[in-house]
Amino acid sequence: MYTLFVFIEIVVSILLIIVVLMQASKGGGLAGSFGGANIGAVFGVRRTSDFLGKTTTVLATIFLVLAIFINLVVLPRGERQEQSVIQSQAPAQGALPPSPQPALPPQQQR
To answer: What confidence score (pLDDT) does residue 52 get?
Structure first.
């Protein structure tokens, strides 16, 4: 189940990347490389911009909702308490004993 949702999340992210790259920015973008210039002839320039904008919004919403859903519902919960790497390491065999405190010189009376 977890693998299925992660696969769907990856597919949605790839589609989102493609749709964002197809949008014509002020500098032209990559719309011409992916055939974005020809898609304007099919839908009309304004309708293409609206379609790509709405598609971006829908895909981004699906991406965020799936990410939250996977994290809260699908992700396996850790019932057992795991120790950190530091806690799981045993003390070293050749550890040095604590050093003694240096003796303070006796106080001189006045």
So the answer is: 85
Q: What is the spatial distance between Cα 44 and Cα 105, in angstroms, rounded to a whole number?
A: 93
Token pair of 23 as six digits = 């949008």
Burial (0-12, 13-18, 19+ Cβ within 10 Å), 48: buried
Amino acid at 78: G
Q: How far apart are the first and last CA of the chain?
A: 83
Angle (deg, nearest 10), helices 36-43 and 45-69: 110
Q: pLDDT category, 17, cuts 50, 70, 90?
A: very high
Looking at residue 42, its amino acid is V
Please say whether the dihedral angle defined by the alpha carbons of residues 17, 22, 25 and 28, taken in this order, is positive or negative: positive
* 19-59 confidence digits (pLDDT tens): 998 887 655 555 555 555 555 555 555 677 788 889 999 99
